[in-house]
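Researcher: I'd like a candidate sequence for this fold, 222 residues long. If you have to choose between options at a position, lean toward the conservative one.
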């Protein structure tokens, strides 16, 4: 009789422990879910400020001499003589800098972009590389300029790189930006030819340039 009571007691203890663990799991799930909901709510409630053209910015506070001088310093005198026929952001070159490559791999983005689909750029697997972008802002302030590339192999997406470049005002001279270092994927599965789809966008979803090019990942860089 005592043995049966002990068995029953042990079973009750195990059941109680199981219920306790389930309860803790539910609390953890609820906590995580609340955090995700809070993040989603913040994203849904975020309203970015309305974009203003350069002309609108110049027209604001015209009677405040100090503000006018500040805007002239910030935007530069070339903003007044911008060519309206030109795109606001013109990306001219993209260069892959890699210590393991014999020379920088350069793409001219001012000509026929379709020709880049037939040109193969080779990098060694596991190599570190950086992207250097040359661009010009002609007219309005661009907010949140970014470069994005998605790599595909045989139609399957393999890798995505996003480089946040920041915000820029118009300048007469060409500007440049050096992206953080990236690593070329490695391993037998990663070797071979890849199709890379690249584009430049901003926070207002403007697409300034998009094109495709070929990246060949090799074992020895040849």
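Model: Candidate sequence:
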């Amino acid at each position: 009789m005592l043995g049966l009571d002990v068995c029953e007691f042990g079973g009750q203890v195990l059941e109680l422990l199981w219920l306790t663990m389930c309860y803790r799991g539910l609390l953890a799930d609820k906590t995580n879910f609340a955090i995700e909901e809070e993040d989603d709510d913040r994203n849904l409630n975020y309203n970015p400020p309305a974009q203003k053209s350069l002309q609108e910015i110049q027209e604001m506070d015209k009677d405040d001499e100090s503000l006018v001088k500040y805007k002239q310093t910030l935007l530069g005198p070339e903003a007044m003589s911008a060519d309206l026929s030109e795109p606001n952001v013109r990306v001219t070159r993209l260069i892959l800098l890699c210590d393991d490559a014999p020379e920088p791999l350069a793409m001219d983005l001012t000509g026929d972009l379709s020709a880049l689909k037939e040109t193969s750029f080779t990098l060694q697997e596991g190599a570190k590389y950086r992207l250097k972008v040359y661009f010009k802002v002609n007219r309005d302030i661009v907010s949140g300029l970014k470069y994005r590339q998605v790599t595909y192999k045989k139609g399957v997406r393999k890798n995505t790189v996003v480089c946040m470049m920041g915000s820029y005002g118009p300048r007469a001279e060409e500007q440049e930006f050096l992206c953080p270092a990236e690593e070329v994927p490695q391993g037998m599965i990663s070797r071979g030819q890849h199709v890379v789809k690249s584009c430049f966008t901003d926070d207002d979803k403007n697409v300034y340039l998009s094109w495709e090019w070929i990246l060949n990942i090799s074992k020895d860089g040849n």
